[in-house]
Amino acid sequence: MSANKNTRGFTIVELLIVIVVIAILAAVTIVAYNGISNRAKASAAQSGASQAAKKLLSYAVQNNDAYPASTVGDPANIDTLTSLGITNGSTTYQYSSNNTVVPRTFCVTATTQSVSYYQNNTTQTTPAAGVCPGHGASGAVLATNQFKNPFFVGPFTLVSYANMINPQLVIVGGVRYLQMEATSTGASAMRINSFEDRWAISEGQQVYVRATIRNPNASNKTFSLALRFYDAAGSTQGSVLSGSYSSSTIGIPAGDTAVISYNTVAPAGTASVLVTPSRNSSNAAIGDLTQVTGVWLGSVDSAAASGDTAGWAWNGPANASTSTGPVQ
Hints:
By secondary structure, this protein is an alpha+beta fold. It contains three helices and 17 strands.
C-alpha cells in the first residue's frame, strides 16, 4: 500500500489575515508604549516643577518674601537654579521672578523630552501643562525686547527733541501711536522716555531695530529709523561715537503705514545704543507729522512684542521694563 500525502501552503487570504493581525498588534503596542512614555515624561516634568517651586518658596521664607533674582533675557537662569540645588538633567528648567510687584512673583518651567509643566506662586500653585510666560516650549527661540514701552501704553513722559514738538498719543484704527510735529524742513528726530533709556551693549554685538511708522500727512514722505551708539566717556549720557549714527530709510505714501527695520554691529568703543525714529529731510515741510508704534530693539530679529504679548513676560514693571518671550 502507498500513502498519499496531501500537503499545501497558506493561501493568499490566510497570509493577508496574518499580516493584518500582526499590524494591529504592532499598532496597539506602539500606542500603549507612547502612552506610557508620555505619562512618564509628564510625571517627571510635574515632579520637577513641584520640587523646584517648593525650593523657591522655601527661599522666600528665609529672604523676606523675595525670590532669587532672574537674569533678564536668560529664562534658563542656570546659575540661579543651581544655587538652590535645581540642576538640569533628564529634566531641564527655566525660571523667572519679579520682586518689583506686589505680591512678588516667580514662575518655574520643567521640561522632560519636550513635555513641559510650570508652576508659580500666584495663579498656578500646582503644576500645570505648558510653560510660564516668557519661557520657551520645546526648543523655542527666545528673545528680549530692550525697548521698554514698545506700544506706548500707560503713563510716561513725552519729550520733544531735535526740532520735533507737540508730542502726543493718537489712536488710529485702534492702534496707539506716538506722534510728533516737525518745526523745520531738515531731518528731524524724536525721542521719548524709552528712547532715552539706552540699551547697554558692547562693541561687536549685533543689534536689530524695527518699528511701525505711519505717514498721516497729505503727501508722500520719507522716514528713517536710526541707531545712535555711545561710548562710556563724557557726561552721564556718554558721547556719541564718531560715524555711529546709522539708519534705514523708507518712503511711505500719504495715509499709509510701513514697517521699517535695520540691523548692524556695534562699532568699537560702544557702551550703549539709542533708537531714534525720524521724518527724513526728503519732501520735508514744517508741520509734518510722524507717528510711531511697535518698536523692537534686540540682539535677534523679531516683530515687536512686550510683556502683554501672548507667551511673553515683563522683566520688571509693565510698560517700563524689558520683556522676554518667543521670537515673533
